[in-house]
Amino acid sequence: MAEHAPFINQNLFICIAVSLLLPIADEAKVYEESRIFPNDEKRLSREYHLRQGALRGMIVKPGKQYDLQPVEMFLGVPYAAPPVGSLRFMPPVSAPPWSGVKMATRFAPVCPQSLPLIKKGNPPSLGRQHYLNRLKPFLKNESEDCLYLNIYVPYREQKSKKFPVLVFIHGDSFEWSSGNPYDGRILASYGNVMVITINFRLGILGKCIF
Fold first, then answer.
1. Per-residue pLDDT for the chain (210 aa), expressed as one digit of tens each?
2. In sequence order, what are the residues at sequence separation of 6 or more whose Cβ sits closer than 8 angstroms to the Cβ of residue 189?
3. Has residue 210 been placed in a domain?
4. Per-position b or e across 132-155, b if 16+ CB within 10 A of its CB
5. Region at 131 (left for phi over 0; alpha for psi -120 to 50; beta for the rest)
6. H-run or E-run covering 51
7. Full domain range(s) for residue 12
8. Phi, psi torsion values for 44, nearest 5 degrees
9. Residue 165 pairs with which residues in a beta bridge?
10. Structural domain tally of the chain?
11. 138: closest CA among 76, 204, 205?
12. Which domain CATH number covers 196?
């Protein structure tokens, strides 16, 4: 049994990580209205300087029901240039610089998509429908300009602290869904890890390319 322990522990960590990233539909409206937590539970993050420009997000706590440390959260950070016009069916290119300080406090649009049709009546279909219902609030704002990511980092007073990075790429056949519904706050705080979720091109716009 001892020789199988690392494999079991690895699978257990993966299961926990995915479960902590499960989407919660009600948070879509909460995020968009900038009411993630009460006023005493959030504040603007420090200013960070990237190659493209200055960036600020929010410092939030994962929730009063959890005894966890705060997390710096940056939503809607561009990782590539808008894939429109002459770039529509081309591989992504670097994001252009921006002027001033970019406020990364709201989700960016998701890629245009069509949700699958599900036949009703059997337990697997009911589970799939429930999953879709949880996703739908996050998928209302669609645009071809959708190459953005969300970053969740454990908050530390010293900015020199480094963390391992977990990049979560959503599934669903490269046809639908988004990285926005997957909340990385709890995993980032509990696991002491940087969590990144991404949006990428789907369907005909994204075959073989992000």
1. 444 444 445 555 555 555 555 554 344 444 443 434 444 467 888 899 999 999 999 999 876 666 788 999 999 999 999 999 999 888 899 999 999 999 999 999 988 887 777 666 656 677 777 777 777 788 888 899 999 999 999 998 776 678 889 998 887 677 778 888 888 898 899 899 999 999 998 887 666 454
2. 62, 66, 68, 69, 70, 71, 154
3. no
4. bebbebbbeeeebebbbbbbbbbb
5. alpha
6. none
7. 2-205
8. -65, 145
9. 194
10. 1
11. 76
12. 3.40.50.1820
Whether 121 is in a domain gets the answer: yes
Block residue for tokens 């209302």: 140
Proportion of the chain in helix, strand, coil states, percent, rounded to 5: 30, 20, 50
Six token digits for residue 65: 């029901």
The answer as to whether 28 is a domain residue is yes
Residues 6+ apart with CB under 8 A from 26: 137
Q: How many CB atoms lie within 10 A of CB 27?
A: 18
